[in-house]
Amino acid sequence: MCAVIKSHECLRLPDGTTQTHGDDARLLLKDIATQKKTSMLAEVLVVVKGLSRDVQCIKNELAEGNMTPAASQGPGSATAQMFPIQLPMANENDFNEAESLLKNESVRQKMVARLALVGGTNSEHLIRRMLALL
After folding, report:
1. Prediction pTM value
2. Where along the chain do its domains lie?
3. Most-buried pick from 49, 65, 71, 133 (CB within 10 A)?
4. Which is nearest to 12 in space by CA: 4, 21, 2, 24?
5. pLDDT tens by residue, 67-105
6. Three-class SS of 42-100
7. Positive or negative CA dihedral for 57, 63, 66, 72?
């Protein structure tokens, strides 16, 4: 025996359960909402990936000294003042010079800031990228 529920017809399914027409409409609306959410999330993902690439390019330019954080100065003497250690180090003399410069607190802080721009997905990746820069 099938009763009328909230003025909707009741449908008996082969597995013995019952379903109303209102349930069908709700399921259809739920499917449409899910499709719209999926579509919106795909669009957001595309935008986020583009922004991520842009941020990585800016970080690389900052790390290479082609750009300053204030973006008001270009490469040249201002960059040399900002990053007094020439990277990558080519030989032991460059290394020894960098080591002596790093004894100065302000130079050490600038180097830490420069290396912090390298980034990475995990600690191993970060360390490998930092060492490649040095």
Report:
1. 0.40
2. 17-133
3. 65
4. 2
5. 555 544 444 444 445 677 887 888 899 889 988 988 988
6. HHHHHHHHHHHHHHHHHHHHHHHCCCCCCCCCCCCHHHHHHCCCCCCCCCHHHHHHHHH
7. positive
